[in-house]
Amino acid sequence: MEHATRALIKRVAALSTAKGRSRAGMFVAEGTKCVLDTLAAFDLHQLIATEAWLAEHHGVVADDKVVVANRGEIGEMSSLTLPADVMAVYRLPEPLTYDPQALQGKLTIALDRVQDPGNLGTIMRTADWMGITSILASRDTVDCFNPKAIQATMGAISRVRIIYGDLPAMLAAAPVAVCGTFLDGSNIYTCELPDEAVVVMGNEGSGISAGVAEVVTQRLLIPSYPPERQTSESLNVATATAIAISQFISHKYGKGKV
To answer: Using one digit for the tens of pLDDT, what is the confidence trace for 136-168?
Structure first.
Protein backbone atom coordinates (compact mmCIF):
# COMPACT_ATOMS: atom_id res chain seq x y z
CA MET A 1 0.00 0.00 0.00
CA GLU A 2 1.38 3.39 -0.99
CA HIS A 3 0.31 7.02 -0.74
CA ALA A 4 -0.55 9.34 -3.62
CA THR A 5 2.30 11.37 -5.07
CA ARG A 6 2.21 14.43 -7.32
CA ALA A 7 3.46 12.31 -10.22
CA LEU A 8 0.65 9.78 -9.75
CA ILE A 9 -1.97 12.52 -9.46
CA LYS A 10 -0.77 14.00 -12.74
CA ARG A 11 -0.78 10.62 -14.51
CA VAL A 12 -4.30 9.73 -13.38
CA ALA A 13 -5.69 13.20 -14.15
CA ALA A 14 -4.40 12.81 -17.72
CA LEU A 15 -6.69 9.80 -18.20
CA SER A 16 -9.66 12.16 -18.46
CA THR A 17 -8.71 12.76 -22.12
CA ALA A 18 -8.85 10.27 -25.01
CA LYS A 19 -5.23 11.11 -25.84
CA GLY A 20 -4.13 10.47 -22.27
CA ARG A 21 -5.96 7.13 -22.14
CA SER A 22 -4.49 6.02 -25.45
CA ARG A 23 -0.96 7.01 -24.46
CA ALA A 24 -1.12 5.27 -21.07
CA GLY A 25 -3.26 2.33 -22.17
CA MET A 26 -5.46 2.87 -19.12
CA PHE A 27 -8.82 4.29 -18.04
CA VAL A 28 -10.57 5.26 -14.80
CA ALA A 29 -13.80 4.20 -13.10
CA GLU A 30 -15.04 6.28 -10.18
CA GLY A 31 -17.41 5.73 -7.27
CA THR A 32 -18.13 2.75 -5.05
CA LYS A 33 -20.82 1.11 -7.20
CA CYS A 34 -18.95 1.62 -10.45
CA VAL A 35 -15.66 0.33 -9.01
CA LEU A 36 -17.16 -2.73 -7.33
CA ASP A 37 -19.15 -3.56 -10.50
CA THR A 38 -16.06 -3.36 -12.72
CA LEU A 39 -13.36 -5.01 -10.58
CA ALA A 40 -14.05 -8.47 -12.00
CA ALA A 41 -14.39 -7.27 -15.59
CA PHE A 42 -11.12 -5.42 -16.20
CA ASP A 43 -7.41 -5.73 -15.42
CA LEU A 44 -6.82 -3.55 -12.34
CA HIS A 45 -3.68 -1.43 -12.26
CA GLN A 46 -4.34 0.57 -9.10
CA LEU A 47 -7.16 1.24 -6.66
CA ILE A 48 -7.05 4.79 -5.26
CA ALA A 49 -9.16 5.44 -2.18
CA THR A 50 -9.46 7.32 1.08
CA GLU A 51 -8.51 5.62 4.34
CA ALA A 52 -12.18 5.63 5.37
CA TRP A 53 -13.24 3.83 2.19
CA LEU A 54 -10.49 1.24 2.56
CA ALA A 55 -11.46 0.58 6.17
CA GLU A 56 -15.06 -0.04 5.09
CA HIS A 57 -14.06 -2.26 2.14
CA HIS A 58 -11.06 -4.01 3.67
CA GLY A 59 -9.52 -6.69 1.47
CA VAL A 60 -11.46 -5.88 -1.67
CA VAL A 61 -8.14 -5.89 -3.61
CA ALA A 62 -4.56 -6.83 -2.75
CA ASP A 63 -2.65 -4.21 -0.75
CA ASP A 64 0.09 -3.93 -3.37
CA LYS A 65 -2.44 -2.39 -5.80
CA VAL A 66 -3.84 0.13 -3.31
CA VAL A 67 -2.97 3.84 -3.20
CA VAL A 68 -4.20 5.89 -0.26
CA ALA A 69 -5.32 9.44 -1.09
CA ASN A 70 -7.30 12.15 0.67
CA ARG A 71 -10.45 13.73 -0.79
CA GLY A 72 -8.52 16.71 -2.11
CA GLU A 73 -6.05 14.51 -3.99
CA ILE A 74 -8.85 12.40 -5.45
CA GLY A 75 -10.57 15.63 -6.52
CA GLU A 76 -7.47 16.61 -8.51
CA MET A 77 -7.59 13.28 -10.36
CA SER A 78 -11.35 13.06 -10.80
CA SER A 79 -13.53 14.06 -13.74
CA LEU A 80 -16.64 14.27 -11.56
CA THR A 81 -18.16 17.47 -10.22
CA LEU A 82 -18.45 15.76 -6.83
CA PRO A 83 -15.49 13.35 -6.56
CA ALA A 84 -16.09 9.99 -4.88
CA ASP A 85 -13.98 8.29 -2.21
CA VAL A 86 -12.59 5.68 -4.59
CA MET A 87 -11.38 5.34 -8.16
CA ALA A 88 -9.95 2.39 -10.04
CA VAL A 89 -7.33 2.64 -12.76
CA TYR A 90 -7.70 -0.22 -15.26
CA ARG A 91 -5.70 -1.32 -18.28
CA LEU A 92 -7.60 -0.78 -21.51
CA PRO A 93 -8.89 -4.07 -22.96
CA GLU A 94 -7.94 -5.16 -26.46
CA PRO A 95 -10.31 -3.79 -29.14
CA LEU A 96 -13.03 -6.23 -30.13
CA THR A 97 -13.02 -7.81 -33.57
CA TYR A 98 -16.17 -7.39 -35.65
CA ASP A 99 -17.87 -10.66 -36.59
CA PRO A 100 -20.97 -10.04 -38.74
CA GLN A 101 -22.24 -13.57 -38.13
CA ALA A 102 -22.49 -12.83 -34.40
CA LEU A 103 -25.40 -10.48 -35.20
CA GLN A 104 -27.67 -13.31 -36.27
CA GLY A 105 -30.63 -14.01 -34.04
CA LYS A 106 -30.10 -10.83 -32.02
CA LEU A 107 -30.96 -7.18 -31.70
CA THR A 108 -27.89 -4.96 -31.92
CA ILE A 109 -27.52 -1.19 -31.50
CA ALA A 110 -25.34 0.84 -33.88
CA LEU A 111 -24.28 4.41 -33.10
CA ASP A 112 -23.44 6.90 -35.84
CA ARG A 113 -21.27 9.78 -34.53
CA VAL A 114 -22.89 10.02 -31.07
CA GLN A 115 -20.83 12.69 -29.28
CA ASP A 116 -22.08 13.12 -25.73
CA PRO A 117 -20.49 10.71 -23.21
CA GLY A 118 -23.59 10.86 -21.02
CA ASN A 119 -25.75 9.76 -23.93
CA LEU A 120 -23.36 6.94 -24.77
CA GLY A 121 -23.25 5.71 -21.19
CA THR A 122 -27.04 5.81 -20.90
CA ILE A 123 -27.40 3.87 -24.16
CA MET A 124 -25.00 1.23 -22.81
CA ARG A 125 -27.05 1.03 -19.61
CA THR A 126 -30.22 0.58 -21.70
CA ALA A 127 -28.54 -2.09 -23.80
CA ASP A 128 -27.54 -3.96 -20.66
CA TRP A 129 -31.12 -3.87 -19.36
CA MET A 130 -32.45 -5.08 -22.72
CA GLY A 131 -30.00 -8.00 -22.99
CA ILE A 132 -27.79 -6.42 -25.66
CA THR A 133 -24.11 -7.14 -24.99
CA SER A 134 -22.38 -5.45 -27.94
CA ILE A 135 -22.82 -2.16 -29.79
CA LEU A 136 -21.41 -1.16 -33.18
CA ALA A 137 -20.11 2.40 -33.43
CA SER A 138 -18.52 4.71 -35.96
CA ARG A 139 -14.91 5.64 -35.22
CA ASP A 140 -15.98 9.21 -34.47
CA THR A 141 -18.45 8.15 -31.79
CA VAL A 142 -17.31 9.24 -28.32
CA ASP A 143 -14.90 6.92 -26.49
CA CYS A 144 -16.77 4.50 -24.21
CA PHE A 145 -13.89 4.73 -21.70
CA ASN A 146 -14.49 8.46 -21.21
CA PRO A 147 -14.98 8.82 -17.41
CA LYS A 148 -18.37 10.50 -17.85
CA ALA A 149 -19.54 7.71 -20.16
CA ILE A 150 -18.40 5.06 -17.69
CA GLN A 151 -20.20 6.85 -14.86
CA ALA A 152 -23.43 7.00 -16.91
CA THR A 153 -23.32 3.26 -17.63
CA MET A 154 -23.89 2.52 -13.91
CA GLY A 155 -21.79 -0.65 -14.22
CA ALA A 156 -23.00 -1.72 -17.67
CA ILE A 157 -19.48 -1.11 -19.02
CA SER A 158 -18.68 -4.49 -17.42
CA ARG A 159 -21.16 -6.34 -19.63
CA VAL A 160 -21.63 -4.25 -22.78
CA ARG A 161 -18.77 -3.79 -25.23
CA ILE A 162 -18.50 -1.37 -28.14
CA ILE A 163 -16.96 -2.33 -31.48
CA TYR A 164 -15.63 0.77 -33.23
CA GLY A 165 -14.96 0.80 -36.96
CA ASP A 166 -16.11 1.81 -40.43
CA LEU A 167 -19.82 1.81 -39.64
CA PRO A 168 -21.18 1.78 -43.23
CA ALA A 169 -18.92 -1.19 -44.04
CA MET A 170 -19.88 -3.04 -40.85
CA LEU A 171 -23.58 -2.52 -41.54
CA ALA A 172 -23.24 -3.52 -45.19
CA ALA A 173 -21.78 -6.85 -44.02
CA ALA A 174 -24.56 -7.47 -41.49
CA PRO A 175 -26.59 -10.62 -42.28
CA VAL A 176 -29.70 -9.10 -40.64
CA ALA A 177 -31.99 -6.13 -41.29
CA VAL A 178 -30.46 -2.70 -40.74
CA CYS A 179 -33.06 -0.33 -39.30
CA GLY A 180 -32.59 3.38 -38.73
CA THR A 181 -34.65 6.23 -37.30
CA PHE A 182 -35.56 9.04 -39.72
CA LEU A 183 -38.15 11.80 -39.94
CA ASP A 184 -39.54 10.21 -43.13
CA GLY A 185 -39.63 6.64 -41.82
CA SER A 186 -42.55 4.28 -41.20
CA ASN A 187 -44.32 4.54 -37.87
CA ILE A 188 -42.39 2.23 -35.49
CA TYR A 189 -45.58 1.52 -33.51
CA THR A 190 -47.60 0.20 -36.45
CA CYS A 191 -45.17 -1.33 -38.96
CA GLU A 192 -43.81 -4.88 -39.01
CA LEU A 193 -40.44 -5.13 -37.26
CA PRO A 194 -37.85 -7.88 -37.79
CA ASP A 195 -36.91 -10.23 -34.94
CA GLU A 196 -33.19 -9.84 -35.66
CA ALA A 197 -31.80 -6.46 -36.65
CA VAL A 198 -29.25 -3.74 -36.16
CA VAL A 199 -30.96 -0.58 -34.92
CA VAL A 200 -29.01 2.52 -35.95
CA MET A 201 -29.16 5.73 -33.93
CA GLY A 202 -27.66 8.95 -35.28
CA ASN A 203 -25.78 12.01 -34.12
CA GLU A 204 -27.49 14.27 -31.55
CA GLY A 205 -27.73 17.20 -33.95
CA SER A 206 -27.67 15.84 -37.49
CA GLY A 207 -29.02 12.32 -37.18
CA ILE A 208 -27.84 9.44 -39.36
CA SER A 209 -25.12 10.29 -41.88
CA ALA A 210 -25.59 9.87 -45.63
CA GLY A 211 -23.09 6.99 -45.84
CA VAL A 212 -24.88 5.02 -43.14
CA ALA A 213 -28.33 5.88 -44.55
CA GLU A 214 -27.37 4.20 -47.81
CA VAL A 215 -27.09 0.79 -46.13
CA VAL A 216 -30.23 1.09 -43.99
CA THR A 217 -32.85 -1.42 -45.18
CA GLN A 218 -35.80 -0.17 -43.11
CA ARG A 219 -36.43 3.46 -42.23
CA LEU A 220 -38.41 4.02 -39.04
CA LEU A 221 -40.04 7.00 -37.34
CA ILE A 222 -40.75 7.45 -33.63
CA PRO A 223 -43.76 9.79 -33.92
CA SER A 224 -44.82 12.28 -31.28
CA TYR A 225 -48.20 11.80 -29.64
CA PRO A 226 -50.84 12.90 -30.30
CA PRO A 227 -49.83 13.65 -33.92
CA GLU A 228 -51.48 17.08 -34.12
CA ARG A 229 -49.95 18.43 -30.89
CA GLN A 230 -46.98 20.81 -31.04
CA THR A 231 -44.00 19.22 -29.27
CA SER A 232 -40.24 19.45 -28.86
CA GLU A 233 -38.25 19.38 -32.10
CA SER A 234 -36.65 16.00 -31.40
CA LEU A 235 -35.91 13.31 -28.84
CA ASN A 236 -32.65 12.88 -26.97
CA VAL A 237 -30.73 10.05 -28.70
CA ALA A 238 -30.50 7.96 -25.52
CA THR A 239 -34.26 8.28 -24.98
CA ALA A 240 -34.96 7.46 -28.62
CA THR A 241 -32.75 4.36 -28.37
CA ALA A 242 -34.67 3.10 -25.35
CA ILE A 243 -38.02 3.63 -27.11
CA ALA A 244 -36.86 1.93 -30.31
CA ILE A 245 -35.33 -1.14 -28.65
CA SER A 246 -38.33 -1.49 -26.36
CA GLN A 247 -40.62 -1.50 -29.39
CA PHE A 248 -38.59 -4.21 -31.12
CA ILE A 249 -38.73 -6.39 -28.00
CA SER A 250 -42.45 -5.71 -27.54
CA HIS A 251 -42.99 -6.81 -31.14
CA LYS A 252 -41.20 -10.10 -30.43
CA TYR A 253 -43.28 -10.60 -27.27
CA GLY A 254 -46.44 -10.15 -29.32
CA LYS A 255 -45.33 -13.00 -31.58
CA GLY A 256 -44.38 -15.18 -28.62
CA LYS A 257 -40.69 -15.19 -29.56
CA VAL A 258 -39.26 -13.81 -26.32
So the answer is: 999 999 999 999 999 999 999 999 999 999 999
Sign for the pseudo-dihedral over CA of 174, 244, 130, 193 = negative
| First vs last C-alpha separation in the chain | 49
**Amino acid making up residue 64:** D
From CA 209, how far away is CA 202, in angstroms rounded? 7
pTM score, two decimals? 0.93
* Longest Cα separation, the chain: 64
Q: At residue 231, does pLDDT exceed 80?
A: no
Same domain, 16 and 106: no
**Predicted confidence (pLDDT) at residue 258 exceeds the cutoff of 70:** no
33-53 confidence digits (pLDDT tens): 999 999 999 999 999 999 999
Domain CATH code at residue 237: 3.40.1280.10
Helix (H) or strand (E) holding 211: helix 210-213
CB neighbourhood size of 1 (10 A)? 11
Q: Which domain holds residue 36?
A: 2-91
* Phi (first) and psi of residue 163, to 5 degrees: -105, 110
**80 or 198: which carries more pLDDT confidence?**
198
Phi, psi of 52 (to 5 degrees): -65, -40
Single-letter code of the amino acid located at 39: L
Q: Strand order of the sheet with strand 218-221?
A: 161-165, 134-138, 107-111, 197-201, 177-187, 218-221
Closest among 87, 70, 80, 71 to 11, alpha carbons compared: 87
